[in-house]
Each structure stands twice: as C-alpha cells, then as structure tokens.
Design brief:
The radius of gyration is 19 Å and the shape is globular. The protein contains nine helices and 16 strands. It is 25% helix and 21% strand. By secondary structure, it is an alpha/beta fold. The longest helix is centred in the first third of the chain and has 14 residues.
Length: 359
C-alpha cells in the first residue's frame, strides 16, 4: 500500500469536481469562505476547470472533462493534495475517462472526499494500491465556526492526527441554506454507539441476542480499512472496476475492516446492498464492520425491520464485531478515515476511537 506525503506548511491544495462542483448556493459561498481560511493559513490553492461548472448531468461537467481533470490534477507535480468540491450522483460515468494506469504510476497524492467520491477513494486503494481519505468535501470547510471534525480532517492531511474519536452529538436536520451558507452543524442529537459482538452480546434491543457489555469489557479489533458509500459501492460491484476480492486476498493476512454508510438507500435497499456485497465475495477475511448512520434510515422501520436488522442479517455469519450509528458519512459530523490504512478500533461501548497506521 502506498501512502502519500502529508501536506506541509505553505503547501498547495488542489480542488477538482469529478462529481458536483461549487456552482450554486450554499456551496459556492461556503467554498469561497473556505478558500479565504486556507489562504490565511498560508496554503496556495489550485483549481480544476470544473470547480464551478454546472453543465453536466449529476456531475459538474461532461464525463470526459471530469475524467481528464481528475487524472491531470492527481498526476501533476504542482499540488500536494486534492480535496473534491462535492458529492453528487453520477461520478461513476467519468471512470472510463480516468487514466488509472497513469495515476498508479504517479507519485501518490492524498485525495479527500466522500459520498460519490467513493468512486475514487475505493478505486485508488483497490486498483492502485494507494491510500485515500474518506472525509469532508471542500465547501464544508467554509462553515463558521469550523466543527472539530473539519480540523481533524486537516490534521489528518497534515499528518498531525492519525487517531480519530467519535463525537458527542450529530446533526439530524441541517440549517445551512442559500441565505445561511456558513451555518455550522446543527448538533441536536446525542451520539449512541450500537454494537454486536462475536459472542452475540449486543445493546440493540431489536436484536437482543444475549447480554449487554457491563462497563468493564472492551471492544477491540484491527484490519485494513476499506469502504465508503454503499450507494456507490453496489454500483461498482461486478463491473470491470470491481477488484475488491483481489484486494482482500492480497491483504488477507491483515484482514479487512469495512466502513460503510448509506445516502439515498432505504432499509430494503441497504439489505439488498449487504446481500450483493456478501455474495460478490467482498466480505472475505473481514475482521469487523464500522457502520455509519443511514441518511434515510434513522428512526424508521420497513416490513417490520429496523436499520440494525437490515444490516446484521448478512453479517452475523462472520462472527466479527459490528459497530453501528458511527460518525461516518452523510449525517454529520463525520470522522475522516484513511481507506487502505491499517486500523485498530477500540471501544468501551460508549466511546470509540480509530487508530490508523500507514503500513
């Protein structure tokens, strides 16, 4: 696994828009304010031609243009890292125009983004053996004041923080809109970790397999981090870009810790996604699962099941720790994770941390 050099003082951050750009509010103003903050910190900035484009369908521009931009800015020698402008809908369509051979042979560079950017963060790991950061996109850094999760993301890019801890509260409903582009996270909900252990102990009432942790037990497991947004992952499953089984075999001695979250999927879609990934062989050699809060599945039931049952039915056979409702993905704040890194996860059932190593 290749790990890029960390962002240095007065380094250069590049921005690309392989999914949506920052052409409309509140993203346009948020991105502009983020640029101001980065410049005040001494960084130089580079912008791909699609950062404020809006002539594409589900992405900033044409698939050809987005693919060229992504390849060029990843492989150039004038920038030190890349932050994606945003998520979107159809980043998958640019993949035929991304030169992954050229990227694989270039000097590794940190790429950070989430959601639709799974199409890059996962493929950098599985196709190019290069680590990437599943973390916030550029416009989020314009909020006033910045949430600690955004400072964590910058600390990770700089190599100053490789251990991430869960946050106390999360946002169910955002207050950010066109008239309030700098609005910080609306943290109204208390974070509560849910878990299922290999021996069946759980604190999930709808599963209620055996007993809860008793305060003295510790959840601990490790493996190589792999994952992203399930909406994108299942779209890649079985395509020519699907080299996940080869990746998991290559790193079978390390084992895989999957981090997964969902954007637009309802509970039945999530359950189908888990079935599809399981039957594609993706979960071989898994050591544990980190599951984020589903954007469309919090507090709902479908056909008599909740979000825990939607996920766990496919995972119980592996007899590994499963931790759910974590700070990963679309219901912020989100902890940044290095896809491809070795990670040790430690939890007492109430708090948790992810210790990442570059090896």
């Amino acid at each position: 696994m290749k790990f890029p050099k960390f962002l240095q003082e007065k380094g250069t951050i590049a921005f690309v828009a392989p999914s949506f750009g920052c052409a409309i509010e509140p993203y346009k103003s948020g991105f502009e304010n983020a640029q101001k903050k980065w410049r005040e910190q001494g960084y130089s900035l580079e912008f791909g031609p699609n950062c404020q484009a809006s002539d594409g369908v589900g992405i900033s521009s044409s698939p050809e243009s987005c693919g060229r931009e992504l390849t060029e800015y990843y492989c150039n020698k004038t920038s030190d890292c890349i932050i994606s402008c945003g998520g979107g809908e159809l980043m998958c369509e640019i993949l035929d125009y991304v030169n992954f051979d050229e990227i694989k042979n270039a000097a590794p560079k940190w790429y950070m983004g989430y959601s639709d950017n799974t199409n890059m963060t996962l493929l950098l790991a599985t196709l190019c053996d290069t680590a990437a950061i599943y973390g916030p996109c550029a416009a989020a850094f314009g909020m006033e004041p910045r949430h600690v999760s955004l400072e964590d993301a910058m600390g990770l890019l700089r190599g100053q923080k490789l251990t991430m801890q869960g946050y106390d509260k999360w946002e169910r409903e955002s207050l950010k809109d066109e008239e309030h582009p700098y609005e910080p996270y609306n943290l109204t909900e208390t974070s509560v970790i849910k878990y299922i252990l290999p021996d069946g102990r759980t604190n999930i009432e709808s599963l209620a397999i055996e007993n809860n942790l008793h305060g003295t037990d510790v959840i601990e497991f490790s493996g190589r981090l792999l994952g992203g947004c399930m909406d994108c992952l299942v779209n890649l499953t079985g395509t020519k870009y699907d080299k996940v089984v080869e990746f998991t075999e290559r790193y079978r001695e390390d084992g895989i810790v999957w981090f997964l979250e969902a954007c637009d999927m309802n509970l039945m879609s999530i359950r189908r996604a888990m079935w599809q990934m399981e039957h594609a062989g993706w979960f071989r050699h898994c050591k544990g699962f980190l599951i984020g809060r589903p954007r469309c599945g919090m507090g709902v039931e479908e056909f008599g099941i909740d979000r825990y049952q939607a996920v766990y039915e496919m995972l119980r056979q592996y007899r590994v720790p499963v931790m759910m409702d974590l700070d990963i993905g679309h219901l912020p704040p989100m902890m940044p994770l290095i896809c491809g890194s070795m990670a040790r996860i430690v939890s007492d059932g109430t708090t948790y941390r992810v210790e990442m190593e570059l090896r």
